[in-house]
Amino acid sequence: MKNNSVDERFGGRNDGVAGFIKSNKVTVAVYIVTILLYVVTLFVSPSFRNWHHLMLVLVLASFLIVVSYGQGIVILVRGLDLSVGSMITLSGVLVAAWVSQSNENILWAIPLVLLITTFIGMLNGIGATLLRIPPFVMTLSTGIIVFSVVLGFTEGSPHKGNAPRFLNGMMLDHTAGIPNIVYFLILFIFVAVIVQSYSAFGRKLYALGANPKAAHISGLRNNLLTISAFGISGFCCGLVGMMLVGYTDAPTLTMGDPYVMSSIAAVVVGGSSILGGKGNYLGTVGGVLLLTILSTLITAIGLAEGWRTIIQGAIIVMALIMSSVSERNTKIASAQKNISKSVPETQKV
User: Fold this and answer.
1) pLDDT, tens digit, for every residue of 133-149?
2) Phi and psi of 2, rounded to 5°?
3) Domain segments of the chain: what residues?
4) 249 — phi, psi (to 5°)?
5) Residue 178 forms beta bridges with which residues?
C-alpha cells in the first residue's frame, strides 16, 4: 500500500495539480510570493522590465542555488554547515592560482579543488558523528581553520591569478540569448531533485532526519549518511567558488561570506524544517529566488546594506515560527487521528 505521508514529505504524490498543491503548500506559496515580489520590483524600477534583467536575476541567484543544495542536505539530516563561506573562498583562490587565465591546467585543477572541498566537508561530518562534536561548533571551527589556510596561502592578498577562460565563458557568455550558467542550473536542479527526492539515497536522508533512532534500528548507516551529506555540501561550495571566480574574474578573501546566512535562509524560507527530516529542493530554489528578488528590490529602493541583513534575519525568524506552528498543528492532528482510531465504534456517538 502506498504511504501518503511519505509521498507528501518527498513531494512525490501524483494526484494531479490539486494533489501537488496540497502536498507542496509551502513550495507553492514561496513561488507565489516570489512572483508578486518580482511584479512589485518591476513597478518600483521600470528599468528592470526587460529580458536582460530577468537573466541577471537568475545569474545572481545561481551561486546561492548551488550552495543552498548542500546546506539543505546537511539541514535535512539535522546538521548545519557554517564553513560554507570559507570553503567557497578556498575554492576560488585555489582555482585562480592553479589555472589562472589559461585552460592548460583545468583538467586536473578543477577536479582537485572539488576533491579538496568535498574532503573538508566530509571531515565536518566525521567530527559531527564519530567525535560527536555539535555540527554548529564543528563547522564553525572548520571555517576558521580553512580561512586561516587561505590567508597563509595568499599572504593576505588573493590576487595570485585570474579566472580561467572556461569559467569566464560559463558565467559570462550567452547561447541563444540565455547565459550559459542558466543551462548548467537547469541540469543541476534536475539532478539535485532526483537525488534528494526520488533516489534511495535521498529517502535514507529523509528517514535519518525524521528519526535517527528509528533509522538506525532499521539498518541505516547513520554516520556514513551524515558524512556523505556534509561531503555534498563541500562539493557544492567548491562549485560556487569556481563560479564566483568566473563571474568576477578574480577571487577575494570575503567572496564566500554572504552565503553562510543566505544559504540557511533560503533553505528555511523554502519550507525545510531546521530540525531535519522535512523539505524539498524545489522549495529551496524558490527561497533563493525570493531572497534574490528581495535583494534587487532593496537595491532599487535605495536602502542601506544594513537593512538587507535586518530583513533577511526577520525572514528567517518568521519562517522558523511558521514552520514551528505547522509542525505543532501536524502533531496535534496526528494525535487526534490516532485517538479517534483507538476509540471503539460502539463508543462513538
Assistant:
1) 999 999 999 999 999 99
2) -75, 135
3) 38-301+314-330
4) 80, -5
5) 175
